[in-house]
Amino acid sequence: MSTSPETPTPEFSITRRFDTPREMVWRAWTEELELAQWLRPFGVSTDSVSFDVRVGGTYRYTMTSEETGEKFPTGGTFLEVEPIHRLVLTWGDPQTPVETAPIITLTFSEHDGGTELVFHLRGIAGQHGDGFVYDGWEEALTNLGHHLAGDLSW
């Protein structure tokens, strides 16, 4: 009887620190009006944002390429909600079953008077410079930083 090694689940993490209280970073991730301001990579707009932040609640937003007009519907289900500490949600095509969807875990920690955010995505490989999922989330988190700082010039 032969056994084959289990294939590791693709995943990656991005850590960011913001000079903003944890409650404000939490709100930026959980309130529709806040999310619509920053939740997108560069060169993309975000439309029709709907977030029902509770365990079992769903969310949906549509990203539109500013260059081609192509639309990218995105959504998922909230699996864990611990206000100002942790969010766990599925992510991707809104039609993907919860059991097979990639999982995002967001951890919010106080750090030197600000907030450390750890973004972890399990189910999709990513690395800096991939021009795809990692870079898209890195750009979105850069947008989040501008939003939290009140920088409207980006």
Concise structural overview:
With 154 residues, the chain is α+β, with helices and mostly antiparallel strands. The chain has helices at 22-30, 32-38, 133-148; strands at residues 11-18, 44-51, 58-65, 71-82, 86-90, 103-111, 114-122.
Can you tell me the CATH class? Alpha Beta
What separation lies between the terminal Cα atoms?
59 Å
Helical residue percent band: 10-25%
How are helices and strands ordered from N to C?
EHHEEEEEEH
User: β content, as a range?
Assistant: 35-45%
Look up the CATH topology. Alpha-D-Glucose-1,6-Bisphosphate, Chain A, domain 4
Radius of gyration: 16 Å
Low-confidence stretches: none
| CATH level-four homologous superfamily name | START domain
**What is the annotated CATH architecture?**
2-Layer Sandwich
Number of domains: 1
Largest sheet: 7 strands, antiparallel
- Residue-averaged pLDDT, rounded? 94
Alpha-beta content class = alpha+beta
In DSSP terms (H or I, runs of 4 or more residues), the helix count works out at 3
Shape: globular
What is the number of E strands?
7
Major sheet strand order: 1-7-6-5-4-3-2
Family: Belongs to the AHA1 family.
Domain Activator of Hsp90 ATPase homologue 1/2-like C-terminal: 19-148
InterPro entries: ASHA1/2-like_C, START-like_dom_sf
Pick out its properties:
38% strand, 154 residues, alpha+beta, Alpha-D-Glucose-1,6-Bisphosphate, Chain A, domain 4, seven-stranded antiparallel beta sheet
Q: Could you explain how this protein is built, in words?
A:
- The chain is an alpha+beta fold and 154 residues long.
- The chain has a single domain (16-148), classed as Alpha-D-Glucose-1,6-Bisphosphate, Chain A, domain 4.
- It has helices at 22-30, 32-38, 133-148; strands spanning 11-18, 44-51, 58-65, 71-82, 86-90, 103-111, 114-122.
- Strands 1-7-6-5-4-3-2 form a seven-stranded antiparallel β-sheet, covered by helices on one side.
- A hairpin with a 6-residue loop joins strand 2 (44-51) and strand 3 (58-65).
- The longest helix has 16 residues, at 133-148.
- The mean pLDDT is 94.
